[in-house]
Specification:
globular; about 260 residues; mainly alpha
């Protein structure tokens, strides 16, 4: 078993030297891939949008110049503005999904590569964008997309299996950071094998960051972006350990 305190202390030591570079790459990923802005703010925004949509739905003053369309819309209990709002929301959602696939997937792998190379004293922000090349780009997108699809299907089945599978697939971007051209199923299989027997401890490791994220909420969710480098460095160190790439004496990892 690996030692949670040791891993987190290693991450802290790394960030003492390179925090602002780590912060910058995490911030870029959050911005370019539509990162989290805090659960409470998203919930409030969603409630406002739903309220607005229902207000538009119940209004009857917005009509087209076509009486047939107007009659049909009245029969359906909807106004043109209602469909306009829903259509706009659908377009925005599709745009965000495309952004995630074409940019977010590769940025995620680049982020993991930044930390893995950083542990070897190659701390370079350019590592974040190193996956945007013809040799790696499409292989990474394919594997990351399959990972997301498999995980989504498990969540559709049941929530708990979906959570378990999310931990099984969690090492996929780290493996891709080191071997981006591996066949997709091989990458996913390796991640499953690598996390076997570690999923509960990984869950507890995630729980150990809750206090930091709660503290971030007091700053309207902005504080979360300052915690992300700590979390990313910790999980990257965990990957090095469970993948067998860690060069530290194994005795230091035992609980």
């Amino acid at each position: 078993m690996w030692n949670r305190e040791y891993i987190k202390n290693y991450a802290k030591e790394f960030l003492r030297k390179h925090y602002w570079k780590a912060f910058l790459v995490c911030l870029i990923v959050s911005i370019l891939s539509g990162g989290s802005n805090g659960g409470s703010s998203r919930h409030s925004e969603r409630n406002y949008q739903e309220q607005t949509i229902y207000e538009f739905r119940d209004q009857t003053v917005f009509e087209t110049n076509n009486p047939v369309i107007n009659f049909s819309l009245r029969r359906l209990g909807r106004t043109p503005i209602f469909y306009l709002v829903w259509g706009s929301a659908a377009i925005v959602s599709i745009g965000l999904i495309l952004l995630l696939i074409t940019v977010g997937y590769n940025l995620e792998v680049g982020l993991k590569r930044f930390f893995l190379k950083g542990f070897k004293d190659d701390v370079n922000v350019r590592s974040l964008f190193s996956t945007f090349n013809s040799l790696e780009y499409f292989d990474i997108i394919k594997t990351q997309f399959l990972r997301s699809l498999y995980n989504l299907l498990w969540y559709f089945a049941l929530i708990i299996p979906g959570i378990i599978k999310s931990y099984e697939y969690s090492m996929v971007p780290y493996i891709l950071a080191e071997e981006p051209n591996l066949p997709s199923n091989e990458v996913i299989r390796r991640s499953i094998d690598m996390t076997d027997g570690h999923k509960w401890d990984m869950f507890v490791l995630d729980l150990s960051f809750i206090g930091w994220y709660i503290l971030g909420l007091f700053f309207f969710g902005i504080g979360e972006i300052f915690v992300n480098p700590y979390k990313e460095a910790t999980v990257a160190k965990l990957y090095n350990i469970i993948s067998g790439n860690d060069e530290i004496d194994g005795m230091e990892l035992l609980e």
